[in-house]
Structure formats: structure tokens, C-alpha cells
Amino acid sequence: AVGFVVDDAIVVVENIHRHLEAGQGMREAAIKGSGEIGFTVVSISFSLVAAFIPLLFMGGVVGRLFKEFALTATATILISVVVSLTLAPTLAAL
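RE: above sequence
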């Protein structure tokens, strides 16, 4: 479950690092690196969130347990997308 949360930021930071190694400045690398990979990160995260939607409709005791898991996983994944596309490039540019 931790992999779902940190994967987005790892991908963004690695792409920014690739631009830094190519000789670009820190700010330029952060802007280009996050811009190039942004749509992919958002797409992967939304497809991952979509995989948890059926768990919300399960019935019974098991359904109640999975519903809480699905809501928690969805919230953390969406927060991870926001952080990886805003905070990670900002920190990489410092």
C-alpha cells in the first residue's frame, strides 16, 4: 500500500533528475520534468482509484471493511498525486 503512495513522487523526481543530468537548471528541470510526466502520473493514479470503486458497493460485514479500505486508499492516492505534481517539483528546484 505504501508503494501506491510514493510511486508517483518517485517517477516525477526521477524525471526531474534526468533533466538535471542533461545540464538544465534546477527550475527548468523541475518545470519540464514534472510537465512531461504529469499526465501519465494522473492517468495511472485515476486508473488505480477506479480499481477500488467496486469495493464501495460490496455488502455485508466484509463490504463495510473493504469500504473503509477503499476510501482510505483512494484519498491517499489522490493526495499523493497532488503532492507529487506540486510539492516534489518545488523541492527539487531548491
